[in-house]
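User: Hi! I'm working on a homework problem where we have to compare a predicted structure to a textbook description. Could you give me the structure for the chain below?
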Amino acid sequence: QVPLAESGGGLVQAGGSLRLSCAASGGAFSSQTIGWLRQPPGKEREFVASINWNGYTYTTSYADSVKGRFTISRDGAKKTVYLQMNNLKPEDTAIYYCAAKTSTNYQYWGQGTQVTVAS
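Assistant: Happy to help. Predicted structure tokens:
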């Protein structure tokens, strides 16, 4: 069973919105941190956002480049993590990956979903 499966990518005009979904199974959803990372064409993979369980509550973190435009959230009943992306820019074009970890390094990865923002 695939631990993480992304969906929701596609082609959108600049200024538009997309919502990515990450369906988790098994131990992946119980991980301390579930995050979204992306790899733009010809560039290194980079952090986008994460949602973290600190033992008491969930906290979120965002890359500066997406703050105020992207929102990460989770639905425990559906074991799904979402990334709502608003006011998309051409530089947001990338393959978006969902990943989960309980320690330093992400140990579960999805297959990725392509997001293309046309100018």
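For your comparison, note the following. The chain has no helices and eleven strands. The mean pLDDT is 94. Good luck with the assignment!
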